[in-house]
Design brief:
The chain is an alpha/beta fold and about 250 residues long. Helices cover about 40% and strands about 15% of the residues.
Amino acid sequence: MRFDVVTLFPEMFSALTQWGVTGRACEHNLASVHLWNPRDFCTDPRKTVDDRAYGGGPGMVMMVKPLENTVCAVKATHLTKGIQGGPICLLAPQGETFSQKIAEDILNYGNLTFICGRYEAIDQRFVDRNVDLQLSIGDFVLSGGEIAAMAMMDAVIRLIPGALGDGQSAVQDSFVNGLLDYPHYTRPEIYENLSVPDVLLGGHHAKIADWRRQKSLELTFRLRPDLIETARAKGLLTREDEQYLRSL
């Protein structure tokens, strides 16, 4: 999976490329992150990337030309290397809220270019001419798109076969089956008079699977009831699931 990231702060992405699961995936060439700074594609000596907004108002607006020059360089690199260019994605508050399903869709693209905005906004003409989709991580404002891009990239890289030590880890993550994950426990067996549930100690795999499914349903019902309705609408709940939900 290849990510091209247009950002004024490429150094921030070392947190993704050098550490943890994502760092190992990059090291093993399962994922690659290519950083593009619009200042490198400016034509003026001061490398200006922003200017005042027409009509007045607070803050500065990122200019079209530096961003468009950067995107052209990204596309030229793809063409030279025979890479099938994927969508260009702007991180923006008005974008569709990111989800596990979108993470799976991005993985299927094979390549995605993120545009990380800064300042007050990006000139709308750049958006209209170049952006294929817009994504958000929630209804709040960040200083720029970098943190949102890294969060999305982390979610996608986890799905790449071989990125996780155990291939079942991604399959069993929260939201994969439409529900929240079940509780997890490790040693010691008793901590401050709190014990690991007996069913997890018995070695009966079918009973453990049933317990985990019920706990997943219970947590989702209590914390995110909206996910229950979505799972029901998608036909992800069994007759046994519905019976257990009624008991709650």
